[in-house]
Amino acid sequence: MSILYNITAGAPRKLLKPILYTTLANFAGIIPFALLVEAARLIFAPFVDPGTQLDTLRLWWVCGGMVASLVLLYLAEIPAYRSQFRGAYSAAAEGRARLAEHLRKLSLGFLNKRDPGDLANMIMGDFTLVEHGISHLVPQMIGALVMPVLALAGLSFLDWRMAAALFAAFPIAIVLVLLTSSIQRKLGASHMRAKLDAANRLQEYLNGIRVIKAYNLKGERFVRLEGAFKQLMKHSIRIEGLLGPIVLSAIACVRAGLTLMVITGVHLLLGGSLDLITFVTFLIIGSRIFDPLTTALVGYAEFRYHEQAGERIVQLLEEPVMQGERRPPEQHDVVWKDVSFGYMDKDVLKEVSVSMPSGSFTALVGPSGSGKSTMLRLIARFYDPDSGKILMGGQDMKKMEPEALLRKISMVFQDVYLFQDTIANNIRFGRNSASQREIEEAARKACSHDFIMKLPQGYDTMVGEGGSMLSGGEKQRISIARAILKDAPIVLLDEATASLDPENEKEIQMAIDQLVRGRTVIAIAHRLKTVKNADQIVVLDNGRIVEQGRHQELLALEGLYARMWKLQQETVGWRLSS
Ligand SMILES: Nc1ncnc2c1ncn2[C@@H]1O[C@H](COP(=O)(O)OP(=O)(O)OP(=O)(O)O)[C@@H](O)[C@H]1O
């Protein structure tokens, strides 16, 4: 049962119809077979008993029955085929969507531990195995078992000695196949890992192809990729090399049963304790059950391999999502109380306490790696603090429903990601229900309307993968338009570090001014001149708040902020003159 649960990636109900219809189709498939046995019995009757006439009328009826049964079989196979493929594709499509939705609800801490290639491969590759499992393997296994089981029952009734000879070696075959099961589990897991590693290396190679070209790195990365392919080859050969002989031995046992039956039959026939018709019946049936049994034996190993893919999906689906069901309050101040946080075993934020009042502008500044982005990620609940609390409107954010909380927050990050879609739809991500007029209004406020109108199809222009058709500044403004459209009371902003040309910089600044108006804003500032007017500036160093206050107050302290300010004044001069 757990195999079926896994092979369907946790949706065994999808197998109900395929199993039902396939079993019916297989029963229908027995009819021509039974008629064949009856035809043989009629033809051999005059030879066994010379006084008996060939019953031609009955023989014709058998022929007619065979034609009718062919039609019946065809009619039974159509719904079976349809239900197999419907079951397979709907299980995979729904499963993929369920998994993608589940991933969205997991904490970034968990997702960061997983390779994105691994997850993508799971959604596409593992579900393809699930599809194949439902559409091919399960029906194949049913087909492979229905006929032999019925044959064993029928033949035992006809002559138990012949049936015993036919199935004598079958238990050995079953033991051998079960033996493959544990080997398959062990080798299958390492084969799957090698497959994932090869897929990840390939993705890394393709993603980094520009850097590889730019730095002429063809050697090293390619060696890693080639190594991964070689490992995959090694594992594939090992799995086949070890499992192949065992499966072949199991098949040999089944074949041996046929030979043993013929020898037993000849012996009994000569001894006079078996009649010719029974012998012929056994010969016909014995030769026909050989194929499905072989299919079952070979298919079992494949079945277990597919099961492992489904099991991986099920395990991921069981990974707990971020908790919290309280609705966020209508007050939008953010208060940090002794918050500490680290990524895995690396401590990043240490006992951070700060109050960010509703409607105020808080700037986070500090050296690279001091924890500024981490603070923003904690407010958006991408992660929860290891200790301490972050309160919004006086309530612990950890207890709030993550999705409802995200509706309260607009984010504009440095690494803007645009979807491969039109500009209008990329802005619409801010609010799905927005009209074209509202989208254009947001774009105008974000100083984007003019450049959008100059594009070949205006708002309907496709932006390319990740927004590759647009410049860095343009992408940033689109993401600001998106945030303006969302109209959330809290804005998290990560100022672009890349040096923008003065025109772009001015436009982005104007766009940001529109976005932050009247909201609680928490912004990472790399260029200190942009935060001179902030309500408060929080200076972080090595995960601790070392200074806090307004621009002039911090300058007067002559500490880290004052040093950073002085340094930037000097480098601005240098940048302009270069
Ligand atoms: N996902 C992650 N997993 C592990 N460590 C991380 C992760 N993200 C950041 N870090 C580490 O946490 C520390 C703080 O990073 P963070 O990005 O918050 O700093 P920052 O002040 O925003 O830096 P920058 O100004 O360079 O963007 C750094 O040492 C960084 O290497």
TrEMBL record:
Membrane topology: Multi-pass membrane protein
Cell membrane among keywords: no
CDD domains recorded: ABC_6TM_exporters
Entry keyword set: ATP-binding, Membrane, Nucleotide-binding, Transmembrane, Transmembrane helix
Domain ABC transporter: 334-567
Highest taxon of the lineage: Bacteria
PANTHER family, alphabetized: ABC TRANSPORTER, ATP-BINDING TRANSMEMBRANE PROTEIN, ATP-BINDING CASSETTE SUB-FAMILY B
The protein's name: ATP-binding cassette subfamily B protein
Origin organism lineage: Bacteria, Bacillati, Bacillota, Bacilli, Bacillales
Species assigned in the record: Paenibacillus eucommiae
Transmembrane spans: 20-47, 59-76, 137-158, 164-183, 242-263, 269-290
Location in or out of the cell: Cell membrane
GO-annotated molecular function: ATP binding
InterPro entries linked: AAA+_ATPase (IPR003593), ABC1_TM_dom (IPR011527), ABC1_TM_sf (IPR036640), ABC_transporter-like_ATP-bd (IPR003439), ABC_transporter-like_CS (IPR017871), P-loop_NTPase (IPR027417), Type_1_exporter (IPR039421)
Signal peptide positions on this chain: none
Stretches assigned to the ABC transmembrane type-1 domain: 42-303
